[in-house]
TrEMBL record:
It is a single-pass membrane protein. The lineage of its organism: Eukaryota, Viridiplantae, Streptophyta, Embryophyta, Tracheophyta. The gene is atpF. The keyword Membrane applies. In plastids the F-type ATPase is also known as CF(1)CF(0). F-type ATPases have 2 components, F(1) - the catalytic core - and F(0) - the membrane proton channel. F(1) has five subunits: alpha(3), beta(3), gamma(1), delta(1), epsilon(1). F(0) has four main subunits: a(1), b(1), b'(1) and c(10-14). The alpha and beta chains form an alternating ring which encloses part of the gamma chain. F(1) is attached to F(0) by a central stalk formed by the gamma and epsilon chains, while a peripheral stalk is formed by the delta, b and b' chains. Pfam families: ATP-synt_B (PF00430). GO terms for molecular function: proton-transporting ATP synthase activity, rotational mechanism. Keywords: ATP synthesis, CF(0), Chloroplast, Coiled coil, Hydrogen ion transport, Ion transport, Membrane, Plastid, Thylakoid, Transmembrane, Transmembrane helix, Transport. The chain crosses the membrane at residues 32-49. The keyword Signal does not apply. This is ATP synthase subunit b, chloroplastic. Residues 64-98 form a coiled coil. Belongs to the ATPase B chain family.
């Protein structure tokens, strides 16, 4: 403790001005040394520090400008992409609507074609049925006519003599010939 009080007491004591020597009193020399070092640093370091700060400031400003340019470019790209998206959506809607109308048109065409085919098949069926009915009727007529003719011939053969029989056959052949000409 005595050293600490001695050092405070020695602050008031300065060595004589004519002598040169080292002052080993730490408390007395530190503030002087610090003020000299700070003064030299401020005087010589001010320019370097200003240059460093200016460089840093310019890099920050350049980075901000670049970021702004990139942001503007990104906004422009976003707007172009949105416009392209709107265009594509409109085209998709148009294709979808055209596709639906084309599908409906094809569906209607298919229904109409199927309906026409069904009508033609129905007409062919009716014509075939009518033809088959006419053929069946003609066959039945021929069979009835042949049976009637055979029955008449049987009756005539039993009732007629040869001469009368010959005249009846000739008359019937003439009638059949006339009927064939009419049907042809």
């Amino acid at each position: 403790m005595k050293n600490v009080t001695d050092s405070f007491v020695s602050l008031g004591h300065w060595p004589s001005a004519g002598s040169f020597g080292f002052n080993t009193d730490i408390l007395a020399t530190n503030p002087i040394n610090l003020s000299v070092v700070l003064g030299v640093l401020i005087f010589f370091g001010k320019g370097v520090l200003n240059d460093l700060l200016d460089n840093r400031k310019q890099r920050i400003l350049s980075t901000i400008r670049n970021s702004e340019e990139l942001r503007r470019g990104a906004i422009e790209q976003l707007e172009r992409a949105r416009a392209r998206l709107r265009k594509v959506e409109m085209e998709a809607d148009e294709y979808r609507m055209n596709g639906y109308s084309e599908i409906e048109r094809e569906k209607a065409n298919l229904i109409n074609a199927t309906s026409s085919s069904l009508e033609q098949l129905e007409n062919y069926k009716n014509e075939t049925l009518h033809f088959e009915q006419q053929r069946a009727i003609n066959q039945v007529r021929q069979q009835v006519f042949q049976q009637a003719l055979q029955g008449a011939l049987g009756t005539l053969n039993s009732c007629l003599n040869s001469e009368l029989h010959f005249l009846t056959i000739s008359a019937n052949i003439g009638i059949l010939g006339a009927m064939e000409e009419i049907t042809d």
